[in-house]
Design brief:
Mean pLDDT: 90
Strand content: under 5%
Distance between the termini: 67 Å
Structural class: mainly alpha
Number of helices: 2
Largest sheet: none
Low-confidence stretches: none
Helix content: 55-70%
Order of helices and strands: HH
Length: 57
């Protein structure tokens, strides 16, 4: 029989998924907090407050 049991495969998938999602979260956090992106995020944060007089039909 194979040395890979259901429990071992499930544990590997859980740990691998956790590591993957932590890496994606950290990459997004680093991107959001990178100083170069500060101006763009501030502009986007104030976008809903701007008075847009154009007609959107």
């Amino acid at each position: 029989m194979s040395g890979l049991t259901y429990e071992a495969a499930a544990r590997f998938a859980q740990q691998g998924g956790t590591i993957y999602f932590v890496a994606v979260f950290l990459a997004g956090l680093i991107y959001a907090l990178w100083p170069k992106n500060k101006a763009a995020f501030q502009r986007l944060a104030h976008l809903p407050l701007e008075n847009d007089e154009t007609d959107h039909v």
